[in-house]
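Sequence in, structure out. Go.
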Amino acid sequence: MSSASEPPAAEHLDVLIIGAGISGIGAAYYLQRDHPHRSFALLEARGAIGGTWDLFRYPGIRSDSDLYTFGYEFKPWRDEDAIADAHKILDYLHETTAEHDLDRRVRFHHKVVAASWSSEQARWTVDIERTDTGERTKLTCDWLFSAGGYYRYDEGFTPRFEGRERFAGTIVHPQHWPEDLDYAGKRVVVIGSGATAVTLVPAMAPTAGHITMLQRTPSYILPVSKSDGLAVRLKQVFGDERGHAMARSLGAFRQRAIWRFTQRFPKASRRLIRWITTKQLPAGYPVDEHFNPPYDPWDQRLCLVPDGDLFRSIRTGEADIVTDRITTFTEKGLLLESGRELEADVIVTATGLNLQPFGGLDLTVDGEPVRLADTVTYKGMMLSGVPNLAFSIGYTTSSWTLKVGLLCEHFCRLLAHMDAHGHTVCRPEPADPAMPKRPFLNFGAGYVQRVVDQLPRQGDRLPWLTSMDYHSDVKRLRKGSVADPELQFSRATQLAPAARPADAVTG
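Output:
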């Protein structure tokens, strides 16, 4: 029995999931389904579930993948819109947590700031900051599962613009959209050419006086149908569950086929995309000036526009595109390198996001700090030399959640394997430390390139090579063996006592 002077032991959980967005909720579902007797909680730094879909409030925010693949495999997508607005996705996530009683697992305003692993105790000690009160607390756990993605939620990316302070109008970053922003009848300039910009322009165009998308470099932009007629028909014929499964398989196949075609035939892909774009625009429109990127398709992510809404805004004259570089902000707007001045009342800097892997979490293993750039990713879900830590990062060339679901399933299979063999510790270690390495996110997007030297690495062979192929991952992660010569298992020699409050959720 501990003395009155000793601090109480920290609450202990079997698994601690960081983040209650689409990945964290999925991880919680699989963990509860496959390991109902394990104790776990989801720690969410904000005051609501949903992650990206609750944080971002800018006009028109929507998915850039169909919800049959972006949604969960275990929960059919019932709405007719395959490309869905944020509020529909958020409703879907709330339905999922309610249906599976996951709400009680979430602890809001709990930001994980540090985690230290003890090999002697075979557990993590996790430092938590209460974002609503500032209070600091600790938890211990056998496993950490990071499900926060890789975007920094408190700060978007805005490059330094000369003369910004001179502009007399309003400057807004989409990540911090003011609820009271009034742009009705006003001149709006959206700086950027990525997914956020091509979403904002058609969403704001009917209300704004006029809106201009100012881009330094064009992007590939493809029109897609907001609804998927075949998927709707499959659900009508085969029912929600079977129809959803068939639509999901079809969507995954379609995404992969498009990506493979663009990789194998980049020149033909460019010509095809240009032809589709030309058909969407007014006759004589300068397609090569505004829709001809200097890179090949999928060197950066393709931008999808539901029902061609961006092109429609251009055809109606509500919106236009300017391809130029900014020299300086002025009192009235933006002076461009060409000498042209764009006058504006509102300027939206849709200039990207910042990456922050593991939410900026400070990791240590037996007192030694973990430098992410020195680690290699194992099966795209663990880090070399770091025990009992898993994470979920989705596909960059397909729907995010296709990968996340498989990773969560594999994680649960790994726990079952350890149980069956009496293991308590699992640590990936490359058999060949001299294996050639490359960035984990091998992607040309600016938000990746800005921090590529801070990210984990991947190897040139399995299981250290991160797959972007869903069908290959189904074989490896869902059906392949968990045991691996480069995955070291052991049993702790000492387990310290830990508190499990009487009201702790254990399943």
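Check: The mean pLDDT is 89. The first helix runs from residue 22 to 34.
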